[in-house]
């Protein structure tokens, strides 16, 4: 039986379809490209490379959600516009912008891309916001068992709108195939744009006020838990940092954008600090050890070849409610630590050389096609698409 939330989303989807039908006669501009952005890293990499290319014919419009608001800049050749998916006026404006575009690049599940499914004049490219996956998503999400057949069909309509899917490895391609229900014809092995910065020579600057100098940095990046939005379990207590770790470390906590205003880190301004508003890449470069769980951050962090620990205090619960990839414990480059004590022992006995080799192998496997030129390769492909009169139809 359809619940109220499902009915509301169905009405929302019907509204999108109706507006899409009304706009079906809108013709795209020959050089217009739109980025739909919910996480800024991929879009930022594409924009950075785009601005360095004098011979690009495309004109970029960037439509971004609240979580990606930091991406907006005052640039003469770029158009930025914030949108809220639940705002009808924003939705209509976004749909019109998409219909005026020859190419739409999206980084997430946006219901509005479903109107591009049978539109021959607009190509939709999915550049997923992660270069690997430890948790299940899409058609593989464990919570789908509680959804109606109408919900699943709606998901499939969105996934069918992806004419191309960017991938950084064969591993991720196989995950996309089952998660989106697509075949091999749709994949672009250009590598993932957000990884380009890891191949640059300069180190990014990180400004952290009131954080003591001379301490080793533990960076904790817990994943999004939709079943515990306001819950936060820290990997180490203040007492452990002071006593068991001999005062050598401080703990920085970066929360997922979706929960940083709901879950608050118990910071003390001395040993534990909330850095959720700081950009991710400089934090990953600055830290000595990453502590994470089921987050995809580890796939890009591994390119730095630095130690990582996995704090999986809710392993069984997460596996049941959300779903983890098969053989999760074998895939991660480290031990799944289900308690603080186990995690503490892993940190105390961290073997740098052994850990580094395992992380290096992990990085090579999951960043198979991401070699520092991913943004350039994808933009070149988009330029080619602008020359075509009709997109290659997506498989259904």
Which helices and strands, and how do they pair?
Layout: H1 4-22, E1 32-37, H2 40-51, E2 59-64, E3 78-82, H3 88-99, E4 103-106, E5 123-126, H4 149-159, E6 164-166, H5 170-180, E7 187-188, E8 216-220, H6 238-244, E9 249-253, E10 272-274, H7 280-286, E11 289-292, H8 297-301, E12 308-311, H9 315-321, H10 328-331, E13 336-337, H11 340-348, H12 352-366, H13 374-386
Parallel strand pairs: 1-2, 1-4, 2-3, 4-5, 5-6, 6-7, 8-9, 8-11, 9-10, 11-12, 12-13
Helix pairs in contact: 2-13
GO molecular function: CDP-glycerol glycerophosphotransferase activity
EC number: 2.7.8.44
Organism: Bacillus safensis
Overview of this protein structure:
Its main location: membrane. It is found in: Cell membrane. One of its GO terms (molecular function) is CDP-glycerol glycerophosphotransferase activity. Belongs to the CDP-glycerol glycerophosphotransferase family. Its EC number is 2.7.8.44. The strands form 2 sheets. The chain has a 7-stranded parallel sheet, sandwiched between helices. It is built from 13 helices and 13 strands. The model has no long low-confidence stretch (mean pLDDT 91). It folds into 2 domains: 205 residues, Rossmann fold (3-Layer(aba) Sandwich); 151 residues, Rossmann fold. Helix 2 links the parallel strand 1 and strand 2. By secondary structure, the protein is of the alpha/beta class. Helix 2 packs across helix 13.
